[in-house]
Amino acid sequence: MSQEDINAEVILDHYRNPHNHGRLANPTFSITEYNPVCGDTVHMEILASNGEISDIRFVGTGCSISQGSASFLTDLVKGKSIPGVMELTPGVYLRELGLNLGPAREKCALLSLNAVRKAISGNSQK
Amino acid sequence: MKSVELIKQDFPILGRTFNGHGMVYLDNAATTQKPLAVIEAISDYYENYNSNVHRGVYRLSEESTDRYEKSRENIASFVSSETAGLVFVRNATEALNLLAYSLGHRLKRGDIILLSEMEHHSNIVPWQFLMEKGVKLDYVKMTSDYTLDRDDYANKLKKKPKIVSITQASNVLGTINPVKEMATEAHEAGSTFIVDGAQSVPHMPVDFHAIGCDFLVFSGHKMLGPMGIGCLAGNLESLESMDPFLGGGDMIREVQYERATWNDVPYKFEAGTPNVAGAIGLSAAANYLRDLGMEEVRGHEKTLMKKTLDLSRDVEDLVSFGPPDPEMRGGVFSFNIGNLPFFKLNDKLEENDVVISGTVHPHDLAASLDSFGIMIRSGHHCAMPLMGRLDVAATSRASYYVYNSLEDVKNLFAHLNEARKVFAR
Questions:
Q1: What is the chain A residue with the closest CA to B422?
Q2: Which of A38, A69, A100 should one mutate to test binding to chain B, selecting the residue with the greatest count of B CBs within 10 A?
Q3: What residues in A contact B353, CB-CB < 8 Å?
Q4: C-beta of residue B223 within 8 angstroms of C-beta of residue B284
Q5: Taking an 8 Å Cβ-Cβ cutoff, which residues of chain A contact chain B?
Q6: pTM of the predicted model as reported, rounded to 2 decimal places
Q7: Which residues pair with B24 in a beta bridge?
Q8: Three-class SS of chain B
Q9: Are A18 and B364 in contact (CB < 8 Å)?
Q10: Is there a contact between B400 and B26 (Cβ–Cβ < 8 Å)?
Q11: Which residues lie closer than 8 Å to B236 by C-beta, 6 or more apart?
């Protein structure tokens, strides 16, 4: 099994048993992002305190990559400082995921990251 | 019709393999593969006849013009329309934009354009441009068996729409609409009737005069021809009365600094150097299809659809969208494994856990089939309003053509379960 296959299994596992799924009582930021091409949707809720993401939850609908990636992302950013999350660019994040994706499916993988970056940079409504 | 095995041999691309699997191409509603005869017709033009049309007096230019005009004649005869009423455009989308622009000139605030709930974006968005001047859009409703509601159509015609534009075959549902009867009713109401033939002209006999429509549009690349060439077939009188769409060379009779007069139909609508090689390639495609016989093409797709509907009954949780009767549908099969409703935040926020429903997302299904060399489409198929009407976020779609075999259909269904094992949630 190649490293890529293992990474794919990890994301599938996130898809089947997502981490941080659900909602928060009093989120600092919340955002819904939608990919009109396939209908993939994620709704992220973020609790920020002392300049870091102290909690994060998500709900959504979509393919294994979009939903698996959203779960993977919540693990990755929980406890990180807000500037630290902003350093997580799409390129860096795709390397973290380590999947062999074409351009169409990269969009699925990046849906949740784009949502989080948009939310914490203030481009969203509470 | 000659055997599918022999037909496959005419298409060089079908010899490709993917992960060691033969190519099973099931995305023909998006575009079709090209037979060698079409590829060679295009190379032959560039190798031996390339020069601009309708301009030079030298022999090469005359030969080029001759081939371009013979292609027009051949394609017009393929759909039984008049040669002078056949305008070359880039694709069906451009033809519909041309019609929306040129017919739209005459419309006034409050005028109605009647479309249907199952239209492709290309038969919705160009008409939406006219809403700026106060034109209203109305949509014929769909019944629960995925056909157009004829009573609703009759009622909406009572409002005297200026234009009715309807697809002959849906690219999502496969539904074949009775455009001949609908054209008659539209004319009785005084409406101009347009047929979107993008999914019908490639797959069944289509006769412009027998339908009795005012305009018929179709794309070359969906009928074995090259990309970038399509047709608007119209009745001469209508075309002559219409304003041009694009301005430039070839479409004029005389130009002064302040004004210009227009060339005759069809040239009035063909501004700039046309896609000559495209027209010649499309003409070769029309010959290829004519040799197979369009009745036979339609019959072949019906056989494939019957098999598809049979096999689909054995797939647990399979939901499909389209008329159950193969007589009423083209070779398009849209389906999902499990339900895939639109995202509704309030529903989702009530849930604490992921609901396990056994759904396989179309993206995952398409990716899984791709690993076996089976190519299907997943998404909204350029029909987002219809997806909303069906309350699905996306569907998977297999669509057939002349080079698809019963084996291809069996292959598709044989691998659905692999996808389910891995991706169902």
A1: A12
A2: A38
A3: 21-22
A4: no
A5: 12, 15-18, 21-23, 32, 34, 36-41, 43, 59-66, 105, 108
A6: 0.93
A7: B374
A8: CCCHHHHHHCCHHHHCEECCEECEECECCCCCCCCHHHHHHHHHHHHHCCCCCCCCCCHHHHHHHHHHHHHHHHHHHHCCCCHHHEEEECCHHHHHHHHHHHHHCCCCCCCEEEEECCCCHHHCHHHHHHHHHCCEEEEECECCCCCECHHHHHHHHCCCCCEEEEECECCCCCEECCHHHHHHHHHHCCCEEEEECCCCCCCCCCCHHHHCCCEEEEECHHHCCCCCCEEEEECHHHHHHCCCCCCCCCCEEEECCCCEEECCCCHHHCCCCCCHHHHHHHHHHHHHHHHHCHHHHHHHHHHHHHHHHHHHCCCCCEEEECCCCHHHECCEEEEEECCCCCCCHHHHHHCCCCCCCCCECHHHHHHHHHCCCEECEEECCCCHHHHHHHCCCCEEEEECCCCCCHHHHHHHHHHHHHHHHHHCC
A9: no
A10: yes
A11: B82, B84, B85, B265
Sign of the CA dihedral running B221, B407, B176, B113: negative
Query: Within 13 Å of residue B226, how many CA atoms lie on the same side as its CB?
Result: 23
For domain A3-120, the CATH architecture is Alpha-Beta Complex (3.90)
Q: Could you tell me if A40 and A62 are in contact, meaning their C-beta atoms sit under 8 angstroms apart?
A: yes
Report the DSSP beta bridge partners of residue B151.
none
Residue spans of the domains in chain A: they are: 3-120
| pLDDT tens readout for residues A59-118 | 998 999 999 999 999 999 999 999 999 999 999 999 999 998 988 899 999 999 999 999
What H or E segment, with its residue span, contains residue A116?
helix A103-120
- Decide if A38 and B379 are in contact by the 8 Å CB cutoff: yes
Q: What is the mean pLDDT of residues B335-361?
A: 75
Name the strand (E) or helix (H) holding A73: helix A64-77
CB contact (8 A) between residue A39 and residue B394: yes
Q: With contacts defined as CB-CB under 8 Å, which chain B residues touch A25?
A: none
Identify which of B403, B327, B40, B335 has the alpha carbon closest to the alpha carbon of residue B169: B327
Q: ω before B266 within 30° of 0 (cis)?
A: yes
Q: Is the confidence at residue A126, as pLDDT, over 50?
A: no
pLDDT in tens, B248-288: 988 999 999 999 999 999 999 999 999 999 999 999 999 99
Which residue in B306, B320, B321, B395 sits closest to B146, CA to CA? B321
Cβ atoms of residues B259 and B247 within 8 Å? no
